[in-house]
Amino acid sequence: MARQFCLDAGRKTSLHVHFSAEEQIYVLEGILSVWLDDRWKDLPAGALAVAPARVPHALGNRTNQTVRFLVSGEPAGFERFFPDLETTARRFSYGGPEFLAELANVYTRYDSKLLGPPPPG
Q1: CA distances from residue 111 to 33, 40, 85 in whole angstroms, order as listed
Q2: 38-76 tens-digit pLDDT
Q3: Taking the alpha carbons of 22, 28, 34, 37 in that order, is the dihedral positive or negative?
Q4: Quick check: bond before 75 cis, omega within 30?
Q5: pLDDT computed for residue 89 by the predictor
Q6: Is 42 in contact with 67 (CB distance < 8 Å)?
Q7: Which residues have CB under 8 Å from 111's CB, separation 6+?
């Protein structure tokens, strides 16, 4: 099941990897930047990106407009990752130490790992 997300201007996810899950990202509105293959790629509305398992990636909004996108993943069970991310984002101040610690726990539960801050750019 796909989950809709919004990223405000200037926000980026941490660089991360899913060891056993593939992630699909479909842009609904705005321009979403996706870090894949060691570079940022700007995706307009209607574009799709796939982050294969074991490939480090990050998502970002490098514009001054909010971007909306859908994210899904496989295999089955990985879809629970996205509501867990949302819960963490609502419970803790974005980017703070408690947020990052809980985020790392969420990633671990889904055979994933935070690798560090988002790549520059």
Answers
A1: 24, 24, 14
A2: 999 999 999 999 999 999 999 999 999 999 999 999 998
A3: positive
A4: yes
A5: 86
A6: no
A7: 18, 19, 20, 21
Residue with token string 């089955």: 76
In order, the DSSP letters of 52-64 are -TT--BEEE--SS
CA dist 120 to 6, 38, 70, 101, Å? 20, 11, 24, 22
Question: CA triplet 96, 100, 102: central angle to 5 degrees?
Answer: 120
Q: Which of 13, 8, 64 is nearest to 34 (CA)?
A: 13
Report CA dihedral (11, 17, 18, 20) to the nearest 10 degrees. 160
Contacts with 120 (C-beta within 8 Å, 6 or more apart), sequence order: none
Amino acid at 11: R
Interacting residues of 25 by C-beta distance below 8 A, sequence separation 6+: 32, 34, 43, 48, 49, 50, 51, 59, 69, 70, 71
**pLDDT class for 112, splitting at 50, 70, 90?**
very high
| pLDDT the model gives residue 111 | 96
- Helix 81-91, helix 97-109: angle, nearest 10: 170
